[in-house]
Amino acid sequence: MVKPRLRRHGRKQRVTYRIVAINAQSRREGEAIKEIGSYNPRKEQTQLDLSAITALIGKGAQPTATVRDISKRAKVFEQVGINFQSKIKF
Length: 90
Known about the structure:
One of its GO terms (molecular function) is structural constituent of ribosome. Keywords: Chloroplast, Plastid, Ribonucleoprotein, Ribosomal protein. This is Small ribosomal subunit protein bS16c. Belongs to the bacterial ribosomal protein bS16 family. The chain is an alpha+beta fold. The chain has a single domain (2-80), classed as CATH 3.30.1320.10. It is 26% helix and 30% strand. The chain contains 3 helices and 4 strands. The chain has helices spanning 50-58, 65-73, 76-80; strands spanning 2-9, 16-23, 34-40, 45-48. Strands 1-2-3-4 form a 4-stranded antiparallel β-sheet, with helices on one face. It starts with a strand and ends in a 10-residue tail after the last helix. The mean pLDDT is 84.
């Protein structure tokens, strides 16, 4: 199964993340299938490739909780018309 998830980049205290499509059983720094965005938590900047995200989710990819939250904050699911419900109940 392919999952969009975060890959860590940068040095200590200056971390940024790239959002990549990767096999769910691969390690965090493993070989990615495709890079679909980036996220900078220090500046709250998000850059996403909407067409790549919709293609992955359309094929059945399940994003991790963090990537799903980042995407919701960026209003990705509203822009592309996907009704993505969280499976995690609090």
